[in-house]
């Protein structure tokens, strides 16, 4: 038994879905396939949700664009046979939802709408496979992936979920399940989501509950590379990684897998394969338990959109643990993610994710106690397994704002 996960890029058009079908078909044993929303349709749904919530007149046009995008894929796959009934139903349901008045809970409304991406994509793929002669069972993952009600960032109820997954995915009369990534539901069956890009995590939840042989994540890259090839030259492919190394990389900002994916797989000792859907015959990268020593090249991870905030006490007092505690908790309350910290006697340097945060308001509050200096538009470069040559090169090439080294990891904050 295995789990395969296909992300948006792997089902972005009819040709891509056909390729997914070929990959699934060549797998002989029992299989659960977890699929994300098609292409960039989750981004599109996010704009739809904003328009719905603000009752903007763009609402209908965005809905039409979302529908059109899927209709083109459906036409490419089904031709004359037309749209599968369930997909038709889902479009109706979504359109109807858009006519109703939203509640006051934005995050709740977000989850009730964003899930249509995954529900529609899985129906299209499942029906296409059925029509092509590969009978399979479409599964609503919300019947077994149970969470709390933190909408948009729901926490999994592990015990209950594991039990339900085992009772639902029985393989009694099927060899293949097609189900959704990213979504779950509360005790009262309200839809929740696990956070953007959460489908990898879904695959790990299902895989670890069913104790599968492996979980494969199919991507448009050959596997895990030593850096993002779009941002750096000379990247090399990494054949194997430990779970720990993979967690470190993804936590530092490597986008190749969702950081939460590793823990459940590590705990059950289930290998995670990162493979190319363009060259499915290639082995890709395997993340598993490694007892022997492996040599890894320097691995570069870039986290963009960082802000460096330097605080010093207004009364010239030395930075204490209480200051750190106060500032960090304040930022957590404001949902700002701290990525690095460094302190001297007088200065507390905090590097944080500043994607779309309201910095002005935050600085206003902090400036009651502290003098503040800051720089935006910075990139945090993490180099795992750094060498002296690499560090020298970085220092020569880049304007470095802050540096931190540990045994295996160097972190440098540089101008973008
Ligand atoms: N479709 C969702 C997203 O784009 C979940 C995922 O792709 O993993 O965030
Ligand atoms: Mg996606």
From TrEMBL:
Pathway connected to this protein: Amino-acid biosynthesis; L-threonine biosynthesis; L-threonine from L-aspartate: step 1/5; Amino-acid biosynthesis; L-lysine biosynthesis via DAP pathway; (S)-tetrahydrodipicolinate from L-aspartate: step 1/4; Amino-acid biosynthesis; L-methionine biosynthesis via de novo pathway; L-homoserine from L-aspartate: step 1/3
Residues annotated as transmembrane: none
Gene Ontology MF annotations: aspartate kinase activity; ATP binding
InterPro entries in the cross-refs: AceGlu_kinase-like_sf, Asp/Glu/Uridylate_kinase, Asp_kinase, AsparK_Bifunc_asparK/hSer_DH
Keyword Nucleotide-binding: yes
E.C. no: 2.7.2.4
Domain of life: Bacteria
Domain Aspartate/glutamate/uridylate kinase, first and last residues per copy: 2-275
Gene3D superfamilies assigned to the protein according to its UniProt record, in alphabetical order: Acetylglutamate kinase-like, Aspartokinase, catalytic domain
One GO cellular component term: cytosol
GO biological process, one term: homoserine biosynthetic process
Catalytic activity as recorded in UniProt: L-aspartate + ATP = 4-phospho-L-aspartate + ADP
Keyword field: Amino-acid biosynthesis, ATP-binding, Kinase, Nucleotide-binding, Transferase
Family as reported in the entry's similarity comment: Belongs to the aspartokinase family.
Protein name, as recorded: Aspartokinase
Organism for this UniProt entry: Draconibacterium aestuarii
